[in-house]
Amino acid sequence: MTDDHIKDSLSKGFDANMYGMIIRVKELQGSYQHIVPNYWFSRAISDCYRMYISGQFYGVISTCQSYVEALGKLICKLNSITPAKNDTIKDWEKLKKSQVVRDETLSAAINIYKDRNNYHHMNSVLNTNGLELKDLALSCLKNINTIDSDIFAHTFDNGQLVPSIALHWPIKSENLSQMDVFIRNVP
């Protein structure tokens, strides 16, 4: 297969999916945080937005579920809460009980995580309806926004990012002047 043939095939596929991609970009507008802490999972969860736009719904769902798992453990540790052994929902319940997260955040985590084993283990009960998968993927991303908006809330003061809960951000200096952040660049 020549480079021109590959280019032509990719272009046709991209063009055929363009209208759906435009709709999905519009669906995401205003439903994600542009700046989040730069943890090991920041790029992966940010890639979910691009996966959603391109129609890779299984990837969005599974990655969002993994994010809820990793983030729950991290936030427990940062707040000196012992994470539950192999029980992500318990981690989020502990965070709520300790008033680290709001009710909406706990609900968002549970909604994302509820069918985790079916997606991660590719169980035969997996939903294969494309429209339902799209809706579930979009719901996961909106729930991620609820979680991120609570845990990684921030404001700006004279152009400087000011975390609502500094403990949740990887800060590199005592006066908050240097933080390791990840900027989500979603169309």
Report what the structure shows.
With 187 residues, the protein is mainly alpha-helical. Helix content is 58%, strand content 7%. The protein is built from 7 helices and 4 strands, in the order αβααααααβββ. The chain has helices at residues 3-28, 42-54, 57-78, 88-97, 103-113, 116-120, 130-151; strands at residues 35-37, 154-157, 160-163, 181-183. A hairpin with a 2-residue loop joins strand 2 and strand 3. It is globular, with a radius of gyration of 18 Å. The two termini are 32 Å apart.
- Strands across the major sheet, in which order? 1-4
- Gap between N and C termini, in Å? 32 Å
Helical segment count: 7
Average residue-wise pLDDT = 91
Largest sheet: number of strands, sense, barrel closure: 2 strands, antiparallel
Our estimate of the beta-strand percent is 5-15%
**Strand runs, count:** 4
Indicate the overall shape.
globular
* SS-derived structural category: mainly alpha
Low-confidence region ranges: none
Query: Whole-number radius of gyration?
Result: 18 Å
- SSE string: HEHHHHHHEEE
Helix content: 55-70%
Keywords:
single chain, 187 residues, mainly alpha, two-stranded antiparallel sheet, globular
Quick summary:
This protein is mostly helical and 187 residues long.
